[in-house]
Specification:
Helix content is 69%, strand content 7%. The protein is mostly helical and 174 residues long. The protein has two domains: 78 residues; 81 residues, no CATH class. A hairpin with a 2-residue loop joins strand 1 and strand 2. Helix 1 packs antiparallel against helix 2, helix 1 packs parallel to helix 3 and helix 5 runs antiparallel to helix 6.
């Protein structure tokens, strides 16, 4: 159960991971999963502390709560709302949602998100390249990404989206 202390709202890692696993199943289920996913994740959205972990892992787990909401709205065909949730996730950590965020923003021409999506994707890539080569290799060939046509499109468009964002975010800033 969550506890409120002088530091904020605290959940255990197991509680949040279990909720995220439930959400992964929901994302594969009904066509319009956002309401159900919001129901599962809403207790964790105010989480500021995760028992037993801290640092980057804590930020990544907290970020994934909001990124899964982005995934739900993207799946429902609402890219603008998805981008808003990905932006919120990015404010915490440039986690694994960065590539999907950039893809969503580029695919739908969501210019108001270009700068944020670019910064998130660039930071995600810095973190990715800092990982050992074997870890990157194993994660890149993860079957779940390649078995899904949408996932395959997202992964394959990363470089193109990065270049698009660099060009357009800079132009918009000027």
């Amino acid at each position: 159960m969550a506890s409120a202390d002088e530091y904020g709202v605290r959940y255990s890692k197991n509680q949040i991971v279990k909720a995220l696993q439930t959400v992964e199943g929901l994302l594969k289920g009904p066509v319009r999963p956002a309401a159900r996913i919001a129901e599962v994740l809403s207790p964790y959205m105010d989480c500021t502390e995760i028992g037993g972990i801290n640092g980057q892992l804590r930020a990544d787990i907290r970020s994934s709560i909001f990124a899964r909401m982005g995934d739900a709205y993207r799946r429902e065909g609402n890219p603008h709302l998805a981008a808003q949730w990905y932006r919120r996730a990015s404010a915490i950590s440039p986690g694994d949602h960065a590539v999907t965020y950039a893809h969503t923003v580029c695919k739908h021409g969501l210019a108001e998100f270009y700068s944020d999506a670019l910064a998130t994707l660039e930071e995600h890539r810095r973190r990715w390249l800092a990982k050992p080569m074997m870890v990157r290799f194993v994660r890149r060939i993860a079957p779940r990404k390649w078995a899904d046509p949408d996932g395959r499109e997202i992964v394959c468009s990363e470089e193109r989206n990065l270049e698009f964002l660099r060009q357009h975010a800079m132009a918009k800033a000027a």
